[in-house]
Amino acid sequence: MVVKKIERSAAEWRARLGPERYHVCRERGTEPPFSGSYWDSHEPGVYRCGCCGAPLFASTAKFDSGTGWPSFTAPVAAGQVETERDTSLFMDRTEVHCAACGAHLGHLFPDGPAPTGLRYCINSAALELVRDGEEEPA
């Protein structure tokens, strides 16, 4: 799957996003656990990138990890998210970002449930849920 790349300046992103979303997605921030709008959401739908609207995760891949952040076993489709090594904060982790716009989403850990054994630990501020039956964004 080829993902169309979206590029904007920092000023353009800042104008489009609220302060929290800008900090999380464009400055690689993290919201406090148990504070985001989706950590305990059980509504069916597709979680899209909060910056560009690209589909990222299906609610059917969401599980309760007990961490306080939305967690998923896999992206909605191959190529929708990308990963890279993150050695900030004296840790060695795998960062997850939107393949379309590069937004920082969260981190990937190898301690998830079957079938993948992966845990995509994602900030609520990086997501926008389009509930089943709702109109898709243009």
TrEMBL record:
Classification via SUPFAM superfamilies: Mss4-like
Keyword Ribonucleoprotein (UniProt): no
Highest taxon, organism lineage: Bacteria
Keywords, in A-Z order: Metal-binding, Oxidoreductase, Zinc
EC number: 1.8.4.12
Uppermost EC category: oxidoreductase
Protein name from the UniProt record: Peptide methionine sulfoxide reductase MsrB
Cofactor(s) of this protein: Zn(2+)
Originating species: Geotalea uraniireducens
Annotated positions binding Zn(2+): C49, C52, C98, C101
Active site per database record: C121 (nucleophile)
Cofactor stoichiometry and binding remark: Binds 1 zinc ion per subunit. The zinc ion is important for the structural integrity of the protein.
Family designation: Belongs to the MsrB Met sulfoxide reductase family.
Catalytic activity: L-methionyl-[protein] + [thioredoxin]-disulfide + H2O = L-methionyl-(R)-S-oxide-[protein] + [thioredoxin]-dithiol
MsrB domain sequence ranges: 10-132
